Records
---
Amino acid sequence: MNIILKPQHLLSKKPNLTHFFSSKTPIPLPYGTETNDPSYKDVPKPVRDKSERKPYVTPMKMLIKRAKEEKEARKLQPCRMLENPPDNGLLVPQLVPVAYQVYEAREVLLSGVSKLVKVIPVQKCRFCHELHIGHVGHEIRTCTGPGSGMRSSTHVWRKGRVHDVVFSPKSYHLYDRVGKPRVVHDESRRVPRIPAIVELCIQAGVDLEKHPTKRRTKPVYSIEGRIVDFEQAKENDENERNLHDENLDPLMGSDLGTKFDEARNFILDKETDQLEESHEGVTDLREISIGTMESWFKMISGAKKIMEKYGVLTCGYCPEVQVGPKGHKVRMCKATKHQHRDGLHAWQEATIDDLVAPNYVWHVRDTNGLPLDNKLKRYYGKAPAVVELCVQAGAPVPDQYRSMMRLDVVPPDRDEVDLVA
């Protein structure tokens, strides 16, 4: 037998696999590592148990550390003027145009969804919050409403509305977000409740006649953790509410105030032109769906920027939301363990999903085909209700939701379920 010996440097050298794959050939990832891709989004998990608390956005150790640092700072300097907005009662100048853009995008979104709902039917379950976009409701048994056990968790469908597709929880409107940041229980009937994203835009700089708010020209002081305003108003409250535009100029300076006025007038003119076009009527359904989806992403991205500066709180056990530095004290929580809290909410930091609920629905590939089968639900994807509505109306599928909608998965036929592992 002839034995061929190889040099030692050839035995220790690892094979170079780059020669076997070209730069254009996609290399399949092993199962379970797809989540490393930042653009990959899996189907959202089922709704959490009502007894479980929402996960904290900021870890509890970090919250405790911040509280200790703030306590030490108050001891070292009991009386100090707050410098950073919006904690000092002033506006963040660079976020004022963003607030107007978010408010404008919301108006365009509601207008577009109201038109699409007339063409693309929306199904809403009578007993739970399940929503379906299509002519026929799906057959997936996920109902958790009253009497679901006797119906084998099947849904009972009815016609949906615009607020079912675009759902935004309501928040108490704060006239002075720094001087009086909390609404007590006795004031619950007197203080109006408006959509939380509208309240966020108002606190960030949007001026609405129906919902006035106080605009300061000087920062407030903090005395042992309590906010004190030494600014003496020369006019009564009614005149202050009507002079929002004049109070913004000394806040941001002459140059910034002029630029802000020009940007705000441009946005308002653009909004007026879009409303006039909507009244004239646009026949192309695809253009409406594309514009609606763009306004959805514009609203979400702008709200995220504002939430980095302006606080938004949510209850850890129920969907209640309060925009402001502190949560209200209205005893209206009916979630788990509310008896131990005397009906008060367990406030914590909110996310964008708490402010604007995406309301994920099952993706329908063939709108004229059979309804979705319960046995094939593992092959179906999901998407936010607004995205699914716009896609069925002709808008292209967004890249960030392709993996969630499982467009690369081919579901088997109904008679092939038993043959698939």
---
Amino acid sequence: MKMLSRKALCKSHAGQDSSYFLGWQEYEKNPHDPVTNPSGIIQMGLAENQLCFDLLESWIATNQEPTGFMTRGGSIFKELALFQDYHGLPAFKKELVGYMAEIRQNKVKFDPNKLVLTAGATSANESLMFCLAEPGEAFLIPTPYYPGFDRDLKWRTGVEIVPILCSSSNKFKITPSSLEDAYQHAQKLHLKVKGMFITNPSNPLGTTLSLDELNHLITFAIHKSIHIVSDEIYSGTVFNSPSFISIFEALKKLKNLENTDIWSRVHIVSSLSKDLGLPGFRIGMIYSNNDMLIAAATKMSSFGLVSSQSQFLLSKILGDKKFRKNYMKENQKRLKNRQKLLVLGLNKCGIQCLKSNAGLFCWVDMRHLLDNNTFDAEMELWKKIIYKFGLNVSPGSSCHCAEPGWFRICFSNMTKETLDLSVQRIKALVGSRATNIDC
């Protein structure tokens, strides 16, 4: 007799059979350590920002009151331990919206009453799917996209993903024709399109969307009467021009929106995992001008609350305006320098990257290293990279890239010495494929 649900009995976790997750499994079996396992696999599939963690540790060391849950009035540990309001700590939400505005050069403002706290951006994205779509309805997503969305957006919600196919021929830009093609493809599949889901800056491309692209998306959403979810968790990682343009800033620039309800159909997801480098704190958020959605998402957030202790500590860190400004400036500087190191190292081996200005990774062109122009050849190259040369990188097919031979390589989760070693291993890979390339 079946004692568990179909969901519980399902052996696969949506998207978990992707090479993206398989690479993680191989890394965990044989992780590189410079002392105990120098020949192990280097993790270049983890988009984690560790470059400014010393700044956070320094702040903690010199600010003992918040870490001990103390204020000038004494201990507030009991108050925090008993606090359960899923609306969140007002002081934290106030500092959070100020931080979000500062990242966007204060070109847009945020109201803490329109913000929902969630246990990370994963929870925020899934909650939005539950709020915006019924099982079997669809969201359009530009390719390539983060492999985890196949799990995060679909597994429990039943929402379908229809790709907006983007091409290297125009540097993977979103065009009106690609939007319409995706919409028509969904129609042929008898899927009702409820919205578009974008990541800006892009994971895995490491690029920011242009104002033209954002305008295409907004105009399309108005014309089709659909939603836009803008995942902006990498907004604080922009280290080069062009500058980041939030979907809300693009909305403000457009004219003649008075007779539309588009402001109530555009929603932002953000977090402190990438730009502040705190994925373990599980600080995610939904921001929307749609009061009904905010009410529903707030109730839904009771299934994944952010601890009051985390909120209190982060309110103190973000409330230190001098530290916050210095961190943002230094973070951008270190990300720029680290990305430059990887790009130059790859260029010396004859490998080019898509020009990027944001993110914790590069979108790397290895098409010339394929035996032939197929995804089977891409998988063979990926296996060689991970098993023979000890590098866990993410193949483009795991990101639903329409062209074989592209790979995502992360650079901010390791020391400079480990990055140098990674480049040396890539050099050996290229040397094994084409000895005439001068590395």
---
Amino acid sequence: MPESEALLQGLLQNGRLTFDQLVERTISVVPEGSIKPAREEIRMNFNKLIFEHYVEPCPKPEPFFNPLVDEQPTSTRKRAPKTVEISLSIDKKVVNTAALSDAERYSEIPCIMEDASNANDSPHSSISGAKRKRNAIEVDAELNSTIAQNEVLYRANFEKFMFCLKKKFCAERKKPKLKVGTHPIREAFFEASLIERDNNSVTSPINGILERLGQKGGTSMTLDHITRVLEELNCSPSSEDPNSFMLDLSRIIEASRNEEIESLVKKKYGQEAFIIFRLLVREGCPVETDKIIDTTILDKQIVHGTLYKLWKDEYIDTEGSENPFWNRNGNSQFFVWRVKNTFREQFIDNLYHAALNLQMVNYIAELLLEGSKDDTKLRSRKTILILALIRHDDSLMLFQDF
């Protein structure tokens, strides 16, 4: 809806606005000659955004927090059960105090407030003495609610947007690995998802999946076939509702992060290093050299040389161990290999350095474009650089925001 787009655009550009400010801005951005939306229509669109958790009120601006309460001696406080208490910093306690409950965050603007607001703006809204006496309580309640509502600042719920990006990312990652004919079921599963209970899983009822499949022309699919495909997608029945299926996004993101690092190892060291590094990542524990050779079916000299390169660049680590059954010559010293605990941090550092280098090269290309007459080649290079920066942004988002 154009009105919903204008509402979100206003919040993203300004950070936080009251509903009245959003109404004024939405009406003002309508092109001349077009029909301006009514306030009630804007309110309904705004409530839809709140219901879908795309918009929320800002936290309490002045939360009351008394730091001296936690500093009282034990004798003056009530005896608490013997449980392990997690000490929180003052900043964290203030944030928790300012946070709103779900009922407050996703409370829609009722129509009665709009009626009271319109009546308050009208020149005929004066109330006679007799009518004031009869309806004093009701009118005061409405006006107080309206004043409070007009003072509420709203903002975009970035957690919701990040969750939508996470869903889209995981769906796209799964897409190339699916069998032919399973794409409609995958799309129907994500489209039928309920309001999320957390940021790491997607839950969709089977009835909603069937409804979306019917809209896509998949009415001939049986329930057994759909269930089988959902299981192939790593969807499992929900523990809270047996008629719903749940997909754990954190597992897909974890696998995607490993694939990003493995692809860098492959580009930098070759196919053999990619195979060895993937084995060590999937094992998740120290692996002996002989087991690496037997599992990967690679030449012994290639394995040793590749392990040395990865160890030298601090992607993997080694440790010695004693084994009396190592060989018959009495040499009991052998090595086991494992990925370093900091290999992800090292990969992120490489991404930052690469992004800075690309930005510098992009800036130099722009300077060259200004004074170049034949700029066809430079423009094509600039396009390649922009695509590389976008690719880096996706990788950084995968490791930092997800």
